Amino acid sequence: MAHFGVFYKCYKETSAVEYSLKQLFSIYPDCPVYLVSDGGNDFSYLEDKYPTLKCSLENDSRGWTLTSSGCDPIVHQYRTPSIHEKFYETFCTILQRIKDGVDFCSKRHILFMEPDVLVRGELTIPLESHLLGVIPQPNISYDAGWNKVLKGIGGSYNTIGWSWPIIFSSEAFLKAYSFAKENETTVRDLLLSDVRFGIADDVWLPVLFGACGYKQENNPEVAECNRNLDWKTSGHPLLHEYRAMYPNAGDPDIGRHSAEEHNSQ
Predict the structure, then answer these.
(1) Which residues in 12-69 belong to E strands, given as ranges?
(2) Which residues are within 8 A (CB) of 173 and not within 5 positions of it... i.e. 6 or more apart?
(3) Which sign, positive or negative, has the C-alpha torsion 22, 27, 31, 36?
(4) Mean pLDDT to the nearest integer, 37-59
(5) Which is nearest to 163 in space by CA: 206, 109, 225?
(6) Cα separation values, 92 from 118, 160, 163, 178, Å
(7) 236 vs 75, 198, 228, 239, CA distance in Å?
(8) pLDDT score of 265
(9) For residues 205 and 17, what is the distance between their CA atoms, to the nearest angstrom?
């Protein structure tokens, strides 16, 4: 029996979504999965194949921040009142979608998946862990803007973000969810403190958990395909940056990444 559930956010990466779900369910056939298509394709047809899968086709919450080659320059106006409001709306939307996934899965822990996250073996998730990810990362420092906000929150924990793929406890998330709902001013301060809090799930989730006093822990079961060139034979049961099944560049269903970025060494 699966000891965790999955919140899965995707767009139009149909082959990658289908492949990753096939792999996941081959190992954990009863794993509950709450899949949100963020303004992309309708994946509800997969519910007939996988009884514990729930698919939801939602509005595009973050497309306004992106171009075909990455972030739209508009995101750097994140302190402009009208842009800040859009960031806050996006934050609230994604936060609620994860809450819906946590409620649906009803498991002690949740794995946050996107199409380039691949489960290829059994996962060991310590019962006492509240936030697992890949740390440290070289491109975030402890002087990131949000840490100035965290210092003003009693019992908070300094965080560096970038901990993908994230595994979190439902208990910790529900506490973070309540904190965000009850402390709008603090959330807005975090959004105004650093553009990365508004555009990256692997930043704002650890930061929000840090605001609630939860410390990130390194997950030794993760290999990142573009950093670990031995990932094919490394035995890590959880992969990030696995993009072999992604659309090719120029495909109308392309998201932020393409199959050409896949590390094939």
Answers:
(1) 33-38, 53-58, 66-67
(2) 98, 99, 102, 110, 209
(3) negative
(4) 97
(5) 206
(6) 27, 22, 21, 12
(7) 35, 30, 10, 7
(8) 40
(9) 22
Largest CA distance in the chain: 49
Tell me which CATH code domain 4-247 carries: 3.90.550
The crossing angle, in degrees rounded to 10, of helices 201-211 and 170-182 is: 80
Average pLDDT of 226-244? 93
Q: How confident is the model at residue 237 (pLDDT cuts 50, 70, 90)?
A: very high
103: three-class secondary structure by DSSP: helix
Q: Residue 167's closest CA among 245, 240, 246?
A: 240
Q: For Cα atoms 234, 238, 243, give the angle at the middle one, nearest 5 degrees.
A: 90
Band (pLDDT 50/70/90 cuts) for residue 51 is: very high
Q: Give me the residue label for tokens 């390194």.
A: 218
Q: Is 115 exposed, middle or buried (0-12, 13-18, 19+ CB in 10 A)?
A: buried
Residues in the chain, overall count: 265
Residue 46 token pair: 């997969």
Backbone phi, psi, residue 147, to 5°: -65, -25
Q: Are strands 117-119 and 33-38 parallel, antiparallel or unpaired?
A: unpaired
**Strand, coil or helix: 223:** strand
Indicate the SS3 state at residue 221.
coil
109, 3 contact by CB (below 8 A): yes
Fill in the amino acid letter for 194. D
Q: What average pLDDT does the chain have?
A: 91
Per-residue confidence band for 159, with pLDDT thresholds at 50, 70 and 90:
confident
CB atoms under 10 Å from CB of 199, counted, come to: 18
Mean pLDDT in residue range 103-114: 98
